[in-house]
């Protein structure tokens, strides 16, 4: 059975043999791109090649790219622990053509890799195409011999990719694997498509148009290819598992979490182990790429992920800081492919330990308060915004941590009430400071309180240059 490390190598070797330059993963913090919170797809480091702004010695490339989807438009944080296929950190395998080959070659490459190299049963595969993309449909028919019902035409933006409001764009085709009838879910485009039976493994984007501000579009002179396949998803398929978290690599992390807490990896704490394994990867890789926990921007996303992980560790009964003890297991699994993890190991461990030690006391007290508040609620009643705000303000609970906790109980937070409480506190603080003469301190205080606010992320929601897809 191939390990995830083997599968990564097979992918890169295949495209190397087919004339592609193997380019290392770029860091998780995109260089020269303040509009994007984290690198969230393989194409991010090649943006200027697609637009023609930059030329390199090669016109074909392949990568295994570190990705984080925990902020901005692509945010899978809330999916973790709930679906079989989402992580906050994952590796995207991709092949790219910059004005070199196009659809007629990209589809056969994908098909050959999946069915010959990886040996997948063609009967378990099906694809989507953009509803007007007859070209792609015809190529699939020819290359894979698919009947029309296995080339599903999708009219939505799910199958039309844009780099941003303007710039390169085009239709895409997504390849799905059918995990079988025993799993709930329906094919793409159906009412049950959110289930985990048909899992998207690979997305091929055909950049063939350019979008202008006035809404018009023209055909690009230089047609390009951008693809992305989740290593953990193809790994699950090749290891005969349905769930990404049952692959060798994720399983090793889950077992480390179970050992460190003397609990059963598949017992009642199963979800906690999954979340911890996922968050261990995203937090460690972010720290290795220079992000430090803070109260704003990228650092606050990191802090939120860390604190969510700590709550799950707490629920497993961990009395002492846990996350830092799992780092060696991660380094064992991924240190060879990503030497930056080895280099940053001490920093990662220290940072996790310090953050967990600091948060521990307020976490315990805050969770008690939350339990008490919930016990007073009527059926289906949301948690009052003031309570969520108190947890945030006094106990350092990011709003999404409280929401994560409540979701397990089938409850929600009154978010409008939370926002109101936040505004009120800001207004009060301003009034109290007015005329006190301590302008310097006041400025610092306001700065801090603003930065603590949940609205600081709105800036990223408006990011223009979206990674794939
Ligand atoms: P989904 O619809 O399942 O959320 P997506 O369409 O958002 O996936 P793309 O943006 O097309 O995903 O990314 C390309 C590939 O990266 C996907 O086909 C999938 O294999 C993988 N991928 C995307 N998001 C995740 C994630 N959160 N965790 C693991 N793999 C992912
Ligand atoms: Mg998605
Ligand atoms: Mg999708
Ligand atoms: Mg997709």
UniProtKB/TrEMBL annotation:
- The catalytic activity of this protein is classed by the Enzyme Commission as 6.1.1.7
**Which catalysed reactions does the entry list for this protein?**
tRNA(Ala) + L-alanine + ATP = L-alanyl-tRNA(Ala) + AMP + diphosphate
Q: Which residues form a coiled coil?
A: none
Record-level GO cellular component terms: cytosol
Keywords of this protein's UniProt record, alphabetized? Aminoacyl-tRNA synthetase, ATP-binding, Cytoplasm, Ligase, Metal-binding, Nucleotide-binding, Protein biosynthesis, RNA-binding, tRNA-binding, Zinc
Q: Subcellular location, in the record's words?
A: Cytoplasm
Per UniProt, residues of the Alanyl-transfer RNA synthetases family profile domain are 2-469
Q: Does the keyword Protein transport apply?
A: no
Cofactor(s) required for function per UniProt: Zn(2+)
Please tell me whether the keyword Cell wall biogenesis/degradation is annotated for this protein.
no
Task: Output one GO MF annotation.
Answer: ATP binding
Q: Anything noted about its domains?
A: Consists of three domains; the N-terminal catalytic domain, the editing domain and the C-terminal C-Ala domain. The editing domain removes incorrectly charged amino acids, while the C-Ala domain, along with tRNA(Ala), serves as a bridge to cooperatively bring together the editing and aminoacylation centers thus stimulating deacylation of misacylated tRNAs.
The record's similarity note reads: Belongs to the class-II aminoacyl-tRNA synthetase family.
Described function: Catalyzes the attachment of alanine to tRNA(Ala) in a two-step reaction: alanine is first activated by ATP to form Ala-AMP and then transferred to the acceptor end of tRNA(Ala). Also edits incorrectly charged Ser-tRNA(Ala) and Gly-tRNA(Ala) via its editing domain.
| Name used for this protein in its record | Alanine--tRNA ligase
């Amino acid at each position: 059975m191939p390990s995830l490390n083997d599968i990564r190598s097979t992918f890169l070797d295949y495209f190397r043999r087919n004339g592609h330059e193997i380019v290392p993963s770029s860091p998780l913090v995109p260089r020269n791109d303040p509009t994007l919170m984290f690198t969230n797809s393989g194409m991010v480091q090649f943006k200027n090649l697609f637009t023609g702004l930059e030329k390199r010695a090669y016109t074909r490339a392949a990568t295994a790219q570190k990705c984080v989807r925990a902020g901005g438009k692509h945010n899978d944080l809330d999916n973790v622990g709930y679906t079989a296929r989402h992580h906050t950190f994952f590796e995207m395998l991709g092949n790219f053509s910059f004005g070199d080959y196009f659809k007629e070659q990209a589809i056969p490459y994908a098909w050959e890799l999946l069915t010959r190299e990886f040996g997948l049963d063609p009967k378990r595969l099906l694809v989507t195409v953009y509803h007007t993309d007859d070209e792609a449909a015809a190529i699939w028919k020819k290359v894979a011999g698919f009947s029309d019902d296995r080339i599903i035409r999708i009219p939505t933006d799910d199958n039309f990719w844009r780099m941003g409001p303007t710039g390169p764009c085009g239709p895409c085709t997504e390849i799905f694997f059918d995990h079988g009838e025993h799993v709930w879910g329906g094919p793409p485009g159906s009412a049950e498509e959110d289930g985990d039976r048909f899992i998207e493994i690979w997305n091929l984007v055909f950049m063939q148009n350019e979008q202008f501000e006035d809404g018009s579009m023209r055909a690009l002179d230089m047609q390009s290819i951008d693809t992305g396949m989740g290593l953990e998803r193809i790994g699950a398929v090749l290891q005969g598992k349905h769930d990404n978290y049952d692959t060798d690599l994720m399983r090793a992390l889950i077992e480390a979490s179970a050992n460190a807490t003397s609990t059963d990896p598949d017992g009642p704490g199963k979800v906690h182990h999954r979340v911890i394994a996922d968050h261990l990867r995203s937090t460690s890789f972010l720290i290795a790429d220079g992000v430090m926990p803070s109260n704003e921007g990228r650092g606050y996303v990191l802090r939120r992920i860390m604190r969510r992980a700590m709550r799950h560790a707490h629920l497993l009964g961990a009395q002492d800081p846990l996350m830092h003890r799992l780092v060696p297991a991660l380094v064992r699994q991924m240190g060879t492919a990503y030497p930056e993890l080895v280099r940053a190991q001490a920093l990662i461990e220290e940072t996790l330990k310090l953050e967990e030690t600091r948060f521990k006391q307020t976490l315990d007290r805050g969770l008690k308060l939350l339990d008490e508040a919930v016990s007073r609620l009527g059926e289906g009643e949301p948690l009052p915004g003031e309570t969520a705000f108190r947890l945030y303000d006094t106990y350092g609970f990011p709003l999404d941590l409280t929401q994560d906790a409540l979701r397990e109980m089938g409850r929600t937070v009154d978010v409008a009430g939370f926002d109101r409480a936040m505004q009120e506190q800001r207004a009060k603080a301003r009034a109290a400071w007015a005329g006190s003469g301590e302008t310097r301190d006041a400025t610092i205080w306001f700065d801090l309180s603003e930065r603590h606010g949940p609205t600081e992320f709105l800036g990223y929601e408006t990011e223009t240059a979206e990674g794939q897809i």
